[in-house]
Amino acid sequence: MKMASFKPVIFFSTWCVLVMGVFAEVNFEDCGSLHGEFSSLKLTGCDPSSMDVCPLKRGKNVTIEVNFLTKEEVTKVDVQVHGHIVVSVPFILPNPNGCVDSGLTCPLANNTQNTYVLTLPIKMVYPKLKVDIKLELEDQNGEDIICVMIPAKIV
Predict the structure, then answer these.
(1) Which of 21, 50, 58, 76 stands 20 to 30 A from 93 (CA)?
(2) DSSP the chain
(3) What is the pTM of this model?
(4) Angle at 40 between CA 111 and CA 63, to 5 degrees
(5) pLDDT tens, residue by residue, 119-139
(6) Which residue segment(s) compose the domain that 87 sits in?
(7) Per residue in 28-51, pLDDT tens?
(8) With 60 as the cut, is the pLDDT of residue 18 above it?
(9) Is residue 134 part of a domain?
């Protein structure tokens, strides 16, 4: 058997691996939205089309903007943000009330498009590591309106 016949296969395999690495992109995942559906997410300094994780710079603020559709009337919005490493660690939020200074005006009507904006300080004491950020907007019953998982790295 000649080795020359394997060269095109090796070349093609290598090319596929390189192309897949170049086109890796951030995948924001729904992690259990019950009473809403997120349609888009923007994060400061994160280009989902060219990154596989969003960088969170220590000592800086990151702004997260989530667009979502409600599937019920919502009178109250509580915000929960956790970092998932091995265990779930809560981020300290400057304002956990989603109805105040967040772009939302409560109550939120059923079947409406909404935009929630959160500015999250990334403290210098946070260790440099890869972390999944879980953002939950909870309704008046403590159930998730939306839940979004954001792959990130504290740098």
Answers:
(1) 50
(2) --GGGGHHHHHHHHHHHHHHHHT-----EE---SSEEEEEEEETT--TTT-SSEEE-TTEEEEEEEEEEESS-BS--EEEEEEESSSEEEPPPS--BTTSSSS--SSBPTT-EEEEEEEEEE-TTS-SEEEEEEEEEE-TTS-EEEEEEEEEEE-
(3) 0.81
(4) 115
(5) 999 999 999 999 999 999 999
(6) 30-154
(7) 999 999 999 999 999 999 998 889
(8) no
(9) yes
Q: The tokens 């300290």 sit on which residue?
A: 92
Using CA atoms, how far apart are residues 105 and 42, in angstroms rounded to an integer? 20
Backbone angles phi, psi at 16, to 5 degrees: -60, -45
Taking 90 as the threshold, does the pLDDT of residue 1 lie above it? no
Give domain status of residue 23, yes or no.
Answer: no
Task: Check pLDDT > 80 for residue 6.
Answer: no
Query: What domain count does the chain have?
Result: 1
Looking at residue 25, its pLDDT comes to 62
Instruction: Please state whether beta strands 88-90 and 54-56 pair in parallel, antiparallel, or not at all (unpaired).
Output: unpaired
pLDDT of residue 10: 36
